[in-house]
Design brief:
It is built from one helix and 15 strands; from the N terminus they run H-E-E-E-E-E-E-E-E-E-E-E-E-E-E-E. By secondary structure, the protein is mostly beta strands. The strands form four sheets. Strands 4, 5, 6, 7, 9, 10, 11 and 12 form an eight-stranded antiparallel beta sheet that branches. A three-stranded antiparallel beta sheet has the order 1-3-8, with no helix packed on it. A hairpin with a 5-residue loop joins strand 10 and strand 11.
Length: about 200
C-alpha cells in the first residue's frame, strides 16, 4: 500500500488554489502585460519556479491540394491549420518554498512584441492570445490556472481618452512608491538613482 501512495504523490498535482489576475482589460502591442499570480497551497511544497506562459495562436481555413486515391487525381480540400506565432514562459519567481495555507502574490510583467499580430477573428482566420500561470513542482505535475484569453490591440487602436500609464518605482531610502518620471521622492526628498 505504501508504494501506491508514493506513486500517487508523483502523479497528482499538489493541492493549491491558484489565481491569475491581469491589470487591464487589454494590452497594446509593444507594451508590457502586468498582473499577479496568487497562490494558496493546501500542503507544504517546494516550487521550482513560478511563471507565466503566453501564446499567440493563429487558426486559419486554407485550401490544400491533396491526392485522392479514389479518383487518382489532385483534389482541392479546405483544411484547418493551427500554428503558434509567439510563445514565451517568463519566470515570475525562482525556486521558493510555499507553506500550507499561506497566501503569496507574485507580480509579473510580460513584454508583448510590437511586431506580433493583434487579437483577430474572422470567418476564415482567428488570432488569439492565451495566458496562464504555472507553479512548477519537481517530480509532480504543475499547478496551473485556467487559461485567460487576452485582448491584444494594435498601437493605433488605443482609446484617445486613456491617460498614459506611468510605472511606479520604490524610493531607495524610504520605500515609498513614486512615478518613474519623478527625480525627487515626494516623501523624503531624496534624489532618485537609476533603476
Amino acid at each position: 500500500m505504501g508504494f501506491l501512495k508514493k506513486l500517487e504523490g508523483h502523479l497528482v498535482a499538489p493541492k493549491a488554489d491558484i489565481n491569475l489576475q491581469i491589470a487591464d482589460q487589454y494590452v497594446v502591442l509593444g507594451d508590457n502585460l502586468e498582473g499577479t499570480i496568487t497562490i494558496t497551497p493546501h500542503e507544504d511544497l517546494q516550487a521550482d519556479e513560478v511563471r507565466c506562459e503566453i501564446k499567440c495562436i493563429e487558426t486559419a481555413q486554407v485550401i490544400r491540394n491533396e491526392y485522392d486515391p479514389a479518383c487518382k487525381c489532385m483534389v482541392a480540400r479546405q483544411v484547418t491549420e493551427t500554428r503558434i506565432l509567439y510563445q514565451a514562459k517568463p519566470p515570475c519567481n525562482p525556486a521558493i518554498g510555499l507553506s500550507n495555507g499561506a497566501t503569496r502574490d507574485f507580480k509579473f510583467s510580460v513584454p508583448i512584441p510590437a511586431g506580433a499580430r493583434p487579437t483577430y477573428e474572422a470567418v476564415n482566420d482567428t488570432v488569439k492570445w492565451e495566458l496562464k500561470g504555472v507553479v512548477a513542482v519537481h517530480g509532480r505535475p504543475d499547478i496551473t490556472t485556467k487559461e485567460l484569453m487576452l485582448q491584444v490591440i494594435p498601437q493605433g487602436a488605443r482609446p484617445a481618452n486613456e491617460p498614459s500609464r506611468v510605472r511606479l518605482v520604490n524610493c531607495e531610502y524610504c520605500q515609498t512608491a513614486m512615478p518613474e518620471n519623478v527625480l525627487v521622492c515626494p516623501n523624503c526628498g531624496a534624489h532618485r538613482t537609476a533603476q
